[in-house]
Amino acid sequence: MIEPKKIWRPNNVKDAWEIQTNLKPSEYCFVSGGTWLRTQWEADLKEMPSNLISLEQIHEMKEVKESLSFGRREISVGSQVTLANCIKHPLLSEYLSPLVEACRQIAAPSIRNVATIGGNIYTASGDTIPAFLIHNARMHWFNGKQMETELMEEWLIGLQANEWRRDQRILIDISVEIDERSNDDFSFFQKVGRRETFTASLVTVAGKGKINKEGTFQEVSLAAGGGPIPLRLSHTESELQNTEGSEDLFETIFPMITKEFNATSDPFATSNYKKTTVANLIISELFEQWDGNGGVSNVAGS
């Protein structure tokens, strides 16, 4: 039976920080729902430390709220918000539907009731990450003295560059800017995995943007996971910006996606399979949006 020496339950961030200052890095870890960590401990993939610092009692990390920041509307999702609560939250359903869909496709309901957004992100490969990346999400950390703000994409790149060194800061919440929805908006999330369990997906894709009545793509954001880290597909986005949809366009960006997406092989799929799958998923979603706006008929009548 796995049994740590001590479980700490601070009720504020400063107390949580104070606890770890008296411990060596190998002697503790911060815990959210603990679902992902438990699978690693029970499979002997990682050794359980002698001290677990639970963040479940910190109220400010369990909220989804809307606010104004420099005149812009912003939604923040606390790192201790469960995946199940994300699925049910009306604000997220209205403005961050790819995130809601990502949460809905993770594991079983019993896991989603416990697993948290922070825990999913902290794996650096969680299904929710692409859904946050397309919104230029910012992460807010407590470093022991003050709050720090960091783009999620920059955090992921830095994490990989430092050879996956554990971050000693405490993730408080993740925020995104939002605008009023319009008829031109589209968004999507797609996942391909081995089965619906709490295991890593083969690939995940997320996207959002606008397509006007002329069939022109605008403000497109795309992200994909299944490589070393999930990342934005910035070159593909640039190719789509202010470009009228056409079958030729989709044929052009397909190889662009496979080249830009840096996939890694694993025991279940090769990197080429992942690249092709990601490209197929994105093209299929974009084609559906374009076709739904009369794209095919526009080409036929031109």
Descriptive notes:
By secondary structure, the chain is α+β, with helices and mostly antiparallel strands. It has three domains: 6-54, Uridine Diphospho-n-acetylenolpyruvylglucosamine Reductase, domain 2, CATH 3.30.43; 60-177, Uridine Diphospho-n-acetylenolpyruvylglucosamine Reductase, domain 3; 185-300, Enolase-like, domain 1. It contains 13 helices and 13 strands. It has helices at 13-21, 35-42, 83-88, 90-95, 97-104, 109-112, 117-122, 128-133, 152-161, 234-240, 247-260, 271-292, 295-300, and strands at 6-8, 28-31, 51-54, 64-69, 72-78, 138-142, 147-151, 170-177, 185-192, 203-211, 216-225, 231-232, 243-244. The strands form three sheets. Strands 4-5-8-6-7 form a five-stranded antiparallel sheet. A hairpin with a 4-residue loop joins strand 10 (203-211) and strand 11 (216-225). Helix 11 (247-260) packs antiparallel against helix 12. The longest helix has 22 residues, at 271-292. The radius of gyration is 20 Å and the shape is globular. It starts with 5 loop residues before the first strand and ends with a helix. 39% of the residues are buried. Mean pLDDT is 89; it is low at 296-302.
